[in-house]
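Progress narrative, work stream C.
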Amino acid sequence: MASGGVSPLTSVSPVPSLQESTAPSTSSPIAQTTNSSSTTPPATKICVFCGSSPGLSPAHMAMARSLAQYMASQKISLVYGGGTVGLMGEIARTLVSLSGPTSVHGIIPAPLVKYERGPDSEAVAEHSRENGSGLPEYNVYGKTTVVKDMHTRKSMMAQEVLAGGPGSGFIALSGGYGTLEELMEVVTWNQLGIHNRGVVVLNVEGYWDGLMAWIKNSVEAGFVGEGNKGIVVDAKTAEEAVKALRDYKLTVGRFKLEWGNE
């Protein structure tokens, strides 16, 4: 989490030397406010945390596609980590193919470009540092913003979700250390009252069973309050996950702290 007394959701800027992969008419990489001049409600935005690997079971990639397909059917936009490989690339490509490039916003730190992209990504990253080009194709992966570090990435993704309409929130597909860290940070932010959006794990083949067991054990051991055991919702299908965000109820044990960003 951010230190030095600054809210984790304080506005941040992308790396100045890098440009976005986006259509020329696209505005600021992150909306600071919802539609103040229009009666049209803001679009629902779901931030999906997931691995840059495909996993060994085909079920993980299949779920990424299923979630993208259901999001497209519900006209929901995707915010994600900006990678083009593994589950990250699969969900972005699928949603863009169904809903167009304006439905996806990837946010990636510059040092991770060569790890969360395809085989030519290191050359692409160097090219981007030199002239701001070479980012993922807009018509394949949607809008991409390259930022300076992990904290900026996570803060921008959270701000996108907070600017979204009803049903906006966070879903974790399968992933590794990075996915778990991102998930647990938004869980902690929910508990602390930093945001009021739902948090769901899409539990493919029992992937998140260990986490759900850990939460139960933490409650029983007295380290997580009984009133906060329901911050994370366990879902088995894309439809269940999206419905869980729409129906999400804040836990009774949530800290009512003033952070100045809700």
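Work stream C, second folded protein:
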Amino acid sequence: MPATRHPTSASFTLAANLRTFRTRAGLSQEELADRAGVHRTYVSQVERQVVNPTLASVSKLADALGLPLARLLDGTTAPDSAPHRLRSGPRGWIA
């Protein structure tokens, strides 16, 4: 069964935090997957809330990012620091 895509759900929080911390670390999904010992598509699926990851998998991802497990599940982590689309200028993103 797919994860719930509601902004207050645990899977939404995990997905947003995983993407935020991965991009802050300058890692691609593939690089994070290699470090965590999971497949690249799995990282993508977690970030898109397609799968409900096990606690063991989330722990591997947190370890690969050098974070305590709780940080990925913390609803107060700053998703507002995710990249924002520039309104003017060529297809750029700013943090």
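The chain has a mean pLDDT of 82. No further action is required on this item.
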